């Protein structure tokens, strides 16, 4: 006779892929007729935007656009000119187990952009991209919690009371907002905007009921050219606050919200002293939480023989969650005197993991670009990649998810031999452990225990074998743990060493 079980369904998301894809894209472009010929390319300022994401069978696809501004010195004229180029990109990541019901989270960023003049009217643009891709598949897992009407079959059962740390919800929300930015200028003519880049940052998130409230700011960085040709920079912060519907997470969940730029437009006003900036953003949220569960680990009947089927359940538990800042101070050698630093930009690459014993070494590359004036007051550009590492105490059975950010601005100043840069990289670490817990998946009752056994003694006297527990003895003799405790006048299930136990049989 098949036993009926009480079952529980665990609804969560499986992370079937988490990778960072790095790729190069190139594009040849003609200088527009309205622009003068190129004498020398100075710098390329770029912005990667996210256009679309798609979950396919076993594959995650991401599309986007790089908006690059090529800054060059024109022939026969002073100052810098700008030339804007759009370069689309597509990348795909293998994601075994992903279906069209899944969700793809993506974060593209431009690590480096360079351009070379093929002739005064034609340029070759090369961009280096890093795209973080996380593919999440909704999953439902059924577990046996216990036996329905256990008394009818004289069933004894052992249950595991625990919890699972799981990805409860994956949601996203697009939103748009606009603001005006006042350009720094004197009473004379306003400056020209050579380049503009936007870095959205989520600074706070909180669950209240089924709503996720998150706040942050779009940090806007401007490269400006004054009427006399001098280069300056500007920085504005555009705050935002949004609400997103989240189901099945609970208010104690851990929220991770990443905000990506999908499109932006800016227009100067009539007198050129203000910009109207319109941003289209996409918030991508992951919510993790602890989910209590009861798992049936073992069972037997004191009256009937029993056949059981079991399986191993994988339960995830949180090990540690931490943010580890790493301060960096480096000299970027230029081979010439740096009179002043105009602008400093930094983008982080992918995070690599390597192990040294019980330590996990996390390493990312900081891609730096410095725009400076040389001793002749000419604008020059230097690029360099600086590795940044962080060590984490992490046993071999612990898995680590890590993402990096660079809070604050990059400080850069002239120094002997080049420019000194200082910045901080934060390693956001989430470590978990997967435990294998045995459980019962099915069971059926057979013949009566007394069938074919003859006369059973009413009491057995024996020692507990090494490693043998009270449950094991009760199951072997078809009695209950309560009866053994009562017969031996014991109050705890920890068996005394070297003591003979009375094991009564159940009739």
Q: Can you count the helices?
A: 2
- The domain count comes to 2
Helices and strands: which structural class? mainly beta
Please tally the β strands and state the result.
21
The pLDDT mean sits at 92
Q: What is the 3D shape?
A: elongated
Instruction: For the record, give the distance between the C-alpha atoms at the N and C termini, rounded to a whole number.
Output: 21 Å
Give, in order, the helices and strands.
EEEEEEEEEEEEEEEEEEEEHHE
Q: Major sheet: size, sense and barrel closure? A: 4 strands, antiparallel
Give unreliable regions as ranges. none
Helix proportion range:
under 10%
- The portion of residues forming beta strands comes to over 45%
Kindly provide the radius of gyration, computed on alpha-carbon positions and rounded to a whole number of angstroms: 32 Å
Q: What report would you give on this structure?
A:
This protein has 507 residues and is mainly beta. It folds into two domains: 10-137 and 167-288 and 319-434, no CATH class; 455-507, Membrane-bound Lytic Murein Transglycosylase D, Chain A (Roll), CATH 3.10.350.10. 3% of the residues lie in helices and 73% in strands. Strands 13, 17, 18 and 19 form a four-stranded antiparallel β-sheet that branches. Strands 1-6-5 form a three-stranded antiparallel β-sheet, with no helix packed on it. The protein has a three-stranded antiparallel β-sheet with strand order 2-3-4, with no helix packed on it. The radius of gyration is 32 Å and the shape is elongated.
């Amino acid at each position: 006779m098949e036993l009926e079980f009480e079952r529980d369904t665990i609804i969560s998301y499986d992370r079937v892929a988490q990778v960072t894809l790095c790729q190069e894209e190139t594009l040849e472009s003609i200088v527009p007729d309205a622009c003068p010929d190129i004498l020398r390319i100075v710098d390329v300022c770029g912005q990667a935007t996210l256009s679309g994401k798609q979950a396919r069978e076993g594959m995650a696809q991401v599309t986007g656009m790089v908006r690059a501004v090529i800054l060059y010195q024109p022939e026969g004229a002073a100052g810098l000119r700008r030339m804007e180029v759009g370069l689309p990109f597509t990348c795909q990541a293998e994601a075994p187990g992903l279906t069209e019901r899944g969700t793809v989270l993506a974060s593209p960023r431009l690590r480096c952009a360079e351009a070379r003049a093929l002739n005064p009217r034609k340029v070759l643009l090369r961009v280096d991209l890093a795209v973080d891709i996380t593919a999440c598949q909704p999953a439902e897992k059924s577990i046996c919690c216990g036996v329905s009407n256990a008394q009818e079959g004289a069933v004894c059962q052992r249950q595991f009371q625990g919890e699972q740390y799981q990805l409860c919800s994956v949601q996203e929300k697009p939103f748009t907002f606009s603001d005006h930015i006042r350009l720094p200028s004197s009473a004379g003519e306003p400056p020209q905007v050579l380049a503009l880049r936007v870095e959205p940052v989520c600074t706070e998130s909180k669950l209240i009921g089924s709503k996720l409230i998150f706040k942050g700011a779009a940090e806007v960085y401007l490269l400006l050219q004054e009427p006399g040709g001098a280069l300056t920079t500007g920085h504005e912060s555009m705050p935002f606050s949004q609400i997103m519907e989240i189901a099945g997470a609970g208010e104690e969940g851990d929220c991770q919200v990443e905000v990506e730029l999908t499109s932006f437009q800016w227009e100067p006003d009539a007198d050129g002293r203000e910009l109207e900036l319109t941003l289209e953003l996409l918030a991508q949220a992951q919510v993790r939480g602890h989910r209590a569960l009861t798992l049936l680990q073992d069972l037997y009947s004191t009256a009937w023989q029993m056949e059981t089927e079991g399986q191993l359940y994988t339960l995830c538990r949180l090990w540690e969650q931490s943010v580890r800042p790493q301060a960096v101070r480096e000299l970027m050698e230029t081979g010439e005197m740096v009179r002043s630093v105009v602008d400093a930009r930094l983008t982080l690459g992918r995070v690599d993991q390597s192990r040294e014993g019980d330590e996990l070494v996390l390493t990312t590359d900081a891609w730096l670009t410095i725009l400076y004036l040389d001793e002749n007051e000419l604008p020059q550009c230097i690029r360099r990649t600086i590795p940044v590492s962080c060590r984490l105490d992490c046993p071999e059975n612990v898995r680590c998810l890590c993402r990096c950010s660079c809070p604050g601005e990059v400080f850069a100043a002239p120094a002997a031999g080049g420019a000194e840069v200082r910045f901080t990289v934060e390693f956001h670490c989430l470590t978990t452990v997967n435990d294998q817990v045995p459980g019962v998946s099915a069971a059926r009752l057979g013949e009566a225990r007394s069938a074919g056994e003859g006369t059973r003694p009413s009491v057995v006297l024996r020692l507990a074998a090494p490693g043998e527990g009270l449950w094991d003895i009760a199951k072997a003799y078809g009695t209950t743990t309560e009866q053994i405790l009562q017969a031996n006048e014991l109050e705890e299930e920890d068996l005394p060493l070297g003591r003979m136990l009375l094991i009564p049989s159940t009739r």
